[in-house]
Design goal:
It contains 4 helices and 12 strands. With 419 residues, the chain is mainly beta. It has a domain at 177-412: Sandwich (Jelly Rolls), CATH 2.60.120.920. Strands 1, 2, 3, 4, 5, 6, 7, 8, 9, 10, 11 and 12 form a 12-stranded antiparallel beta sheet that branches. β10 and β11 (364-370) form a beta hairpin. The longest helix has 13 residues, at 177-189. The protein starts with 146 loop residues before the first helix and ends in a 12-residue tail after the last strand.
Length: 419
Amino acid sequence: MCFGRKEKKLIQDEDAPRPAPGYFPQQPTYASGPPKASMPQQFAAPAQLQPQPQPQYQQPLSPQSPYNQVVSPMTPAAPPSGPPPAAELPALSKQPNPPAELSGTDDFAPPPGPPPSHQPAAPTKPQNDYMAPPPGPPPSKAAQHDWEAAVPDTSLFPPPPAIFSGFYQSPATNATEAEAEAGEAWCNQYPLFAPLTLDPAALFALGAHNPRLMSPAPPINYRGDVRWLAPGVWTGSTTPDSGDGCIIGYPPLYSVLEHSPLAPAHAPIKTIYFEVVAKNFIGEGAIALGFTALPYPAFRMPGWHRGSLAVHGDDGHKYINDRWGGKAFTQPFRPGETYGMGMTFRRGSNGGLEVEVFFTRQGRLDGKWNLHEETDAVEDLPVTGLEGFHDLSCAVGTYKGTEFEVVFDPVRWLFRPEV
């Protein structure tokens, strides 16, 4: 481990101006109408111009009318004999009979049936809380929804990413807070390198799967050494009083300028991988294996700071820029077993890079994770430097007494990567 918010006004027209008195001439009033003006005899109209009595037009005779007499205009009209017909009586002298339903004393007839007080009482709820079952037999099992067939077996699903599973300290061994702060200060002083242009010697070593391992130099509290054993094979050991140390390989196994899948001239997939044989652990001795961008503090275990990831053997946790206790991932390492660490960079459909990290044990895949899997925004730090835009070197961490072997030669690997 490492420490480290209107009122609506009615509009009326003003009263029209009234005319002043005397504006309209006053007309005389008469009790029985205006008097008839008399005309002098000398101004009377000739006899032929005097108005003649007009013949009276008779009402057409019809069999139904009781008035079939011809009335002379010179004689007063006499009323017909007998009483007036019933049809000619005043309209209010006879009213039609009211409807039967209104013939009573009330305005409306009562509704049919007994009054509401005599209606049958509504069924009451039984004393207990359980209602009687519905009538008829229960539905057959075939008619029921088969949810077991609709819901797949979730035990076959891959495990979800480990969210909120970070440890504040390792259950095994832990570094001091002062060492964690020193590592952070070192990283702030030495930022990540831009992609390197490899010289011919570095390109040759990379093509031959024979990179060089560089152990920490004094004054770091590292007590041990690494030796070249064969092409692509290195052996190393540390003493029980050795502190934390990180052994880094060069040239980097992943070179942006040589391997990036984003370059049209490169393959769309690039995988890097190496294996470590844990020969022996002395006391609390432990090893870790992973990758780191350059540069990285050699007095710190890989995975504890920016641009680095690793799996630690003392607790089996994975560390990605995590100076606390990492996340549970696998079982602790045991002497005599072979462990492998790999990363696959793939050109994505959206034009970016997809990065997958995998870990092997005894030649079998033991676990993997996507570098950009869902993480906790509070506890997890960025993965800058591991996304395929910086060179990445292999990194082997040691603590106290260890004996190990690092294998880069694919022929000697127990695990065969797909790419």
